[in-house]
């Protein structure tokens, strides 16, 4: 649900959003805490997805009509890749979770 909200906000700017399966797993791993409920999950989404996406938007890397793909590099750092053709790359289970 939280990722769907982020996707809707980004789509209101005319930008598509896809999140890789690896990134979703990382968010779930870092956002899981039985004692604190969903608070750590919200924080993980903000830190790992929204912050890097905001940087890409502010730098001009993502423009209306693009699809921003949030993924994890080989070192475990989140990054945004832009698919300028407007076609979403295939990311396993990413659409079903958003």
Automatic annotation (TrEMBL):
<protein>
    <recommendedName>
        <fullName>Clp ATPase C-terminal domain-containing protein</fullName>
    </recommendedName>
</protein>
<keyword id="KW-0067">ATP-binding</keyword>
<dbReference type="Pfam" id="PF10431">
    <property type="entry name" value="ClpB_D2-small"/>
</dbReference>
<dbReference type="InterPro" id="IPR050130">
    <property type="entry name" value="ClpA_ClpB"/>
</dbReference>
<dbReference type="GO" id="GO:0005524">
    <property type="term" value="F:ATP binding"/>
</dbReference>
<keyword id="KW-0547">Nucleotide-binding</keyword>
<feature type="domain" description="Clp ATPase C-terminal">
    <location>
        <begin position="1"/>
        <end position="81"/>
    </location>
</feature>
<dbReference type="GO" id="GO:0016887">
    <property type="term" value="F:ATP hydrolysis activity"/>
</dbReference>
<dbReference type="InterPro" id="IPR019489">
    <property type="entry name" value="Clp_ATPase_C"/>
</dbReference>
<dbReference type="GO" id="GO:0005737">
    <property type="term" value="C:cytoplasm"/>
</dbReference>
<dbReference type="GO" id="GO:0034605">
    <property type="term" value="P:cellular response to heat"/>
</dbReference>
């Amino acid at each position: 649900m939280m990722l769907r909200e982020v996707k809707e906000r980004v789509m209101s700017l005319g930008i598509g959003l896809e999140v890789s399966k690896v990134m979703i797993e990382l968010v779930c791993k870092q956002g899981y805490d039985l004692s604190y409920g969903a608070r750590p999950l919200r924080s993980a989404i903000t830190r790992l997805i929204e912050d890097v996406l905001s940087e890409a938007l502010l730098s001009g890397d993502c423009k209306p009509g693009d699809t921003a793909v949030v993924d994890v590099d080989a070192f475990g750092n989140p990054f945004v890749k832009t698919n300028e053709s407007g076609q979403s790359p295939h990311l396993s289970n990413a659409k079903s979770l958003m």
